[in-house]
Amino acid sequence: MYVAVKGGERAIDNAHAWLAEERRGDPAVPELGIAQIREQMALAVNRVMAEGSLYDPDLAALAIKQARGDLIEAVFLIRAYRTTLPRLAASNPVDTGAMAVDRRISATFKDLPGGQVLGPTFDYTHRLLDFTLMADGAPLTDAVPHTPVPSPRGRDGRGGETPRVPHVMGFLNRDGLIETALPDDTPPPDLTREPLELPADRALRLQALTRGDEGFVLSLAYSTQRGYGRTHAFVGELRIGIVAVEVDIPELGFAVEIGEIELTECETVNQFRGSRTEPPQFTRGYGLVMGQSERKAIAMSLVDRSLRWQELGEDFTGAPAQDEEFVLMHCDNIQATGFLEHIKLPHYVDFQAELELVRKLRAEAQAMQEAAE
Amino acid sequence: MSDDTQSGAYTFAYLDEQTKRMIRRAILKALAIPGYQVPFASREMPMPYGWGTGGVQVTAACLTPEDRLKVIDQGADDTTNAVSIRRFFQRTAGVATTEATMDATIIQTRHRIPETPLTEGQILVYQVPIPEPLRFLEPRETETRKMHELEEYGLMHVKLYEDIARHGQIATSYAYPVKVEGHYVMDPSPIPKFDNPKLSGNPATQLFGAGREQRIYALPPWTDVVSLDFDDHPFETSKAPHDCDLCGAKDSYLDEVITDDEGGRMFVCSDTDFCAGRRAEGHEGRLGGDQKSSKTFANSFEGIWPATAGAR
Asked: How high is the ipTM of this complex?
């Protein structure tokens, strides 16, 4: 009887063995390969890379497999692995203007230099279950086969020069209609190497948001649309594509391209009637997320804008999305899920202390009641 | 040494040397300012936040190959998480482990201070969920840091006073706030207030690690620690009003175990090493002669001793 409340090594080993068996599922069904997950569950892989803060599609796919498809658990596996990696170098800032875009849309202009490129989007699909996928058949489609845009560093590795795709914000900026984002060469703080200290600057906020939980950031952004700290956002531009990562090599005296990563970038244009300190003009919100993660990038740019109330001389209305400390302390799903789930660990010492207290208080209350009668 | 350490799959005690140096600096600062919460760049560990990542990082930064480690959770060496953390260090540091409080050089604990008095040279590492004693009175870190700076603890005294006004006593039974060397109010982690007196004047070094909240704080040996109270409502410890049913101890903190569905209960020491030690000396409680219960109790240690022996 007593042993039942005490754990032990054997219980842990048995639990792990059972977990491994459950992960594999029915052995009659072929096992998933890492390459299959990477290629066919790419958006899950992207989310795990973004929230795990590690760009490695193979490891993200492995984490998803090991976590039985629990994406937060997969993010956790990646984070725990990431902390053990040495910091070899810091890259130069990536140039999203030179992005080889798969998708690039603007909601503020009908057409613009560089064009609107719809890309591989769910946006205009009808959400009807495609039963041919279940029957292992080819999906129904009228589309012409996709020919990749040739690019110097495209995924196919061939092709000519990609034209620079100018940012929409640049057009507005030229007319002085949008706030100027001044270049800032201050080295950004590093959330993963220094404790988060408040108040945070914008770079630190963006860092926290880009690895923050997609669901949490989405709901916060949504709350600003519904009036809890209004953001009045238009998607000025959303682009998804491949950018080169370059590192300065001091011995060589120039930057060397070490690889390329897929990014989603969103810039919002936000209505702004002016404040005590700023003239009426459009303002900016910014989102940048690893992989193809456009829901997250849009949400991030709304929350970024909302958190900038102080800098723009707006009022604090008490909305959660305006509250830097609330947002930054709660957006990390690995911290959140850890603390939430730890309440299933034994707490019987504390509970015993509470039991004694409640028994004592009840006995006193009863005695007083009896005395009153 | 275990295979993993020998093969170089992990650095000694898992964390890389730079991280350990960063944590040691935070620990030294914490020891220099007793009770002050030092921010540190807590790392993601291979166990979840809430499972003791702060304590694990502090232990990892303190461990040397010569150390002998004891890990307890709820006072017991054989609770699942204590087993898991002990295994983690066996695997990544290959250090010797023990269940005997007096033999350990480092003890990592969750929610208890061992009953056996600690000695000089020992380190007690606490796992801390919420390091800020004022957090439930003021949720903002930016505010609470200011309150500590100014020693502005009126809010805490008002809370304790309101408890007395409403319940006739201070209604905090664990994580009972203390004042360190007359300055910082500190959260002793969720130990029952029964353990609070052991915090003060303790010859061991007491280190507190909060991983998710990125804070380390400390009580150097012989630090003066006072549980908050009022002159007319002095601090009191509390425990279940029973003796241990296995070893008969009258003065140890007890777990209440439900033994059947008809209200049957037994009370046993939460400190398993203390209880086992007393029984080995021949002490016997109400159910101490019960063959079945003491046998199953002994069985629960199986599998730990061989692993401990093998780690050397």
From this structure: 0.79
Q: Which helix (H) or strand (E) holds B19?
A: helix B17-32
Angle at A206 between CA A203 and CA A207, to 5 degrees: 85
Query: Which residues from A are below 8 Å from B129, CB to CB?
Result: 339, 342
Active site residues of B: 35, 244, 247, 269, 275
Residues 6+ apart with CB under 8 A from A35: A61
Cβ–Cβ below 8 Å for B238 and A354: no
Q: What is the pLDDT of residues B203-234, one digit of tens each?
A: 999 999 999 999 999 999 999 999 999 999 99
Unique residue bearing structure tokens 């959660």: A320
The answer to whether A347 faces chain B, any CB pair under 8 Å, is yes
Concatenating the DSSP letter of every residue in B173-239 gives -BS--EEETTTEEE---S-BGGGGGGGTT-SSEEEEEETTTTEEEEE-TT--EEE--BTTB------
Listed residue (A266, A263, A195, A189) closest to B38, CA to CA: A195
CA B178, CA B199: separation in Å to the nearest integer?
A: 9
Q: Best of B10, B29, B44 to disrupt the A interface by mutation (most A CBs within 10 Å)?
A: B44
pTM: 0.85
Which of B232, B224, B210, B202 shows the shortest CA–CA distance to B110? B210
For A172, the enclosing helix (H) or strand (E) is helix A168-174
One DSSP character per residue, A121-132 reads -STT------HH
**Residue located via tokens 């603390």:** A339
